[in-house]
Amino acid sequence: MGGWSMTLDRMVAKLALPAVLATLLVVPLTVWTYDRVYLPSQYPPGAKVFTLYWSGEKGITLQRVNGLNYWLPWFERLQEVKVREGDRVVLRLISTDVHHGFALPAFGITDVMVKPGDITTVDFVADKAGRFPLFCTIRCGPSHEDVEATLTVLPAEEGPR
Q1: Which one of 1, 85, 107, 136 has the fewest beta carbons within 10 angstroms of its own beta carbon?
Q2: Is the Cβ–Cβ distance between 116 and 96 less than 8 Å?
Q3: What is the pLDDT along the chain (161 residues), one digit of tens a residue?
Q4: Whole-angstrom Cα Rg for the chain
């Protein structure tokens, strides 16, 4: 019985480091694949897809917010999303803390509920050029007034490719 236990201990010891390394490589690779390969395949070809993380404290950011980094102070608030006139735009809205309400009135989008833990998708065609506010419509925290950004729709001939 002792010999079998020692063999098992040696096998576990030999597999521990490869298992940890595999985890450290596989998890980030899976997240990268999900973001770069799987997600774009879910939306119409050519659509401009943006994932916006919403926080009553941090405002709106393009940086992935999770339980590990939520309390860190270095999040860059989103100021502007740029698209070209005629682009199909998909906004993936993710709340990191509380319920938010999303509005982009210039395109007829008002009072879309953004629930914590859910991904809320808003899909529209940017059919007019200009600068348009997008913002939270529900009192969501101490920085509620800062949970806003601008959608800039450049004329078709000037827009980013």
Answers
A1: 1
A2: yes
A3: 556 666 878 888 888 888 888 888 888 888 778 777 777 778 888 899 998 888 877 778 877 776 666 666 667 888 899 999 999 999 999 888 888 889 999 999 998 999 988 889 999 999 999 999 998 888 877 776 778 899 999 998 754 55
A4: 21
Length of the chain: 161
46: left (phi over 0), alpha (psi -120 to 50) or beta: left
Beta bridge partners of 109: 104
- Residue type at 7 in one-letter notation: T
Longest dimension (CA), the chain: 78
pTM value > 0.85: no
Residue 101: in which H helix or E strand, if any? strand 100-104
Are the CB atoms for 118 and 75 separated by under 8 Å? Answer: no
